[in-house]
Design brief:
Elements: H1 5-51, E1 93-95, E2 106-109, E3 122-123, H2 124-128
Antiparallel strand pairs: 1-2, 2-3
Length: about 130
């Protein structure tokens, strides 16, 4: 069966439109993730100013919304709501001290593939240059 040139053009146009829509949705999620990481970074910096240090450990983001029992100077909550998942439904990964930023913290999303430490991860290093 032979496809007419006009049918092929319509198929190519529809395929191109679908690819554009998918790429736009992924780009929107990347931008949302970068915005959320920047928001976390601002809150973490305020926490550090108030308490003298960033929250320790991998659960430190929770200290932005609930006072840690053993830290003085906490003036939060530093965020208006609970810690959300990233746009792909995965938890954000926080470490202090950081492996990439040993004098600061590492904050990342595992990105679209949901796997940490892969090429599609988004981190505070890609947002703020930390």
């Amino acid at each position: 069966m032979e496809i007419s040139p006009s049918a092929a053009a319509i198929t190519n146009l529809a395929s191109g439109r679908l690819q554009t829509e998918v790429a736009t949705k992924v780009l929107d999620k990347v931008l949302d993730t970068q915005t959320q990481i920047a928001t976390f970074s601002t809150a973490l910096d305020a926490f550090e100013v108030d308490t003298g240090a960033y929250p320790l450990g991998s659960g430190g983001l929770q200290y932005l919304v609930a006072a840690p029992g053993d830290i003085s100077g906490w003036r939060g909550p530093y965020l208006k709501s609970d810690i959300p998942a990233d746009p792909w439904g995965h938890p954000y990964i926080y470490e202090y001290p950081g492996k990439t930023n040993p004098t600061g913290y590492d904050l990342r999303s595992s990105g679209p593939d949901g796997q940490a430490n892969t090429a599609d991860d988004l981190s505070n290093g890609t947002v703020s240059g930390r």
